[in-house]
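sanity check both lines:
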Amino acid sequence: MSLVIQKYGGTSLGDANKINHAAQRIAAADGSVVAVVSAMGGTTDAILDLARNLTDAPHARELDLLLSTGEQAAAAALAMALHELGVPARSFSGRDGGIVTDGVHGSARIVSVDPARIRACVQTGHVPVVTGFQGVAADSGELTTLSRGGSDTTAVALAAALQAEACEIFTDVEGVFTADPRHVAEARKLDHLSYEDMAELAASGATVLAHSSVEYASSHRVPIHVRSSTTETAGTWVTGFHQAALLDRERLTAVGVAHQTGQLRCRLDGFDPAALTPVAAALTDPMLSVDMLDHVPGSLRFIVQAGDRDQVDEVLTDLHAAGAFTGRRWSGPVAKVSLVGRGFGGRLLQVLHTLRAHGIGVRDMTVHGRRVSITCAEHDVLTAVAHLHRTFLGRPLSEISGLMAGRSERKGR
């Protein structure tokens, strides 16, 4: 019998009606289902507010235990809803589900999965409902939470371990779009995306999938199906599918445009070029949000999410002590806009011309793999996205929803 993983995010489990709807979808599935859940909508922020009202510096271990209760409540609630429909179900914590991590509190990474208990549950005709975003440390046995988007990664990891046919990610949008449809009215839903292109979009600000989940899916060849939790539209498949033929047929150079606000610029002056390799290795640690690393004679520049500045400053202090640079300058906030696709090598001037023709000042510009990224003033970000979408994705300039850029959005769990 076929087996799929179905992951439900917080917006899909926001209240009793939504939980019942998710249960009905699971009950109607043709084959076996393993469900993975995030905390109910708003729960995580409420828990974090509680912790911050108690202390300015929550103990990492205790904060992990506190945060984990959100997913545990959602898993138990969904299991109850399934029982009410006559579907036998059982909730599992990350520990019970065999999710083993590297033990880093607050931003752990999955190192292995032992799905024996989940597999046994499926074989008895039950639906396992597994908490996302958490696991057990390999060395200490402590509960640890993953980084933001960790429930997506949990679902993909279970799909790989159980050799599921696919990992279905249910969310409040109908799939992956060429731009954020809330801001670009002509943004088109993509039927297929390669792992590589989806990873670049996720790293650039597209919040529909966590970057870590796409990387895990790519390395284990797990097909991901992004679907709406409220409609029956086809959604978007993220697989090893190659976009080249599609791009040639539609004469496109870009797959999508993504953006992020709340970025800070950093410039390291008096930079020692001999230190480039160790400095780049330190700054590109997955736990940091450093991007757009650019080395020019005498300096090194990059951007980072504002909330991660303190962590980056700690790393920079050590590098400064080692003589890698003489001084640092912070500025911002700015917005990052990224075009993802192929063939940008000869189109960089067109990117700059498109933006400058509409009065948008470009502060920085880098090319990284399948992505070209620029920074601009936050109040210009939606205009930049709209014009780049029109120019490189062949659609009329969209109506921009809102006159000001929204706040930087972080992927939920």
Q: What stands out?
A: The longest helix spans residues 60-84. The two ends are 30 Å apart (CA to CA). The chain has a mean pLDDT of 89. The CA atoms of residues 387 and 397 lie 6 Å apart.
